[in-house]
Amino acid sequence: MSAFGCRWTRADFQAVPFTALGRERPVYVKGSGPAVIVMHEVPGISAEVARFARKVVDAGFTVYLPHLFGVVGKPTNEFIRMRELAKLCISREFHVLAENRSSPIADWLRALARYVHQEIGGRGVGAVGMCVTGNFALTMTLDHAVIAPVLAHPSFPLPVTGRKAAALHVTAATLDNARRRIREEGLRVLGVRFTGDVMFCRAARFESLRRELGAGFEGIEVPGRSAKPHPEPPHSVLTIGLVDHEGEPTREAVDRVIGFLRERLCD
After folding, report:
1. Domains with residue ranges and CATH for the chain
2. What is the pLDDT, as a whole number, of residue 73?
3. For residues 216 and 95, what is the distance between their CA atoms, to the nearest angstrom?
4. What residue ranges in 87-229 does DSSP mark as E strands?
């Protein structure tokens, strides 16, 4: 069993192997209640991602935290983030520049969502993607089990051109299905980003989500100046940019994510 450092013990998260499409990965599980899959950002399951996952657990959910790549349990920094992003750029499971298709790893995550729904039951499953996994939450709505997708600062395709900055890293079929589910089932999609994010999740991406999903998309754009001071431009609202105090815009964004999960998943 992998360790999450001094705070990650067997009494905290339980490591469960999950195999799909010929690939086994550890999934860290904690909590009780409706299921939420939390997909970590670069550089991996950092201490900051774990903090967010625990907030979801404390709100009354069972969190499934798959280890997709990178480090486990360490505070993040610029060096290890750039190192892990460079690895993803040459990975077969991540297509970092794809505009109208998702990364292959999203199919593994869809299989996990189906398994989790069978295990936990209930109305459905939540899926919170962050940064490089942010768009995967939308692809996962291809499966009926996923009813609470959250796109936190979705970063693929990497915005190396204006067109890529506006692209959504999903197929046309995914968008068609999402629109159908919005119209017929009342599906809703939540997104969150910093207004000052000029590196990875620019305003054009949320403009595309609003155009494609209409009233089915709720976009939260947090002022970049409210991010926790950091050498890099503001990006990760739920993790390294979080100022975890009452009344702070980033704390309000976390609270809204949890409120969204409750609205969609709880009876």
Report:
1. 14-265 (3.40.50.1820)
2. 74
3. 26
4. 125-130, 146-152, 189-194, 217-222
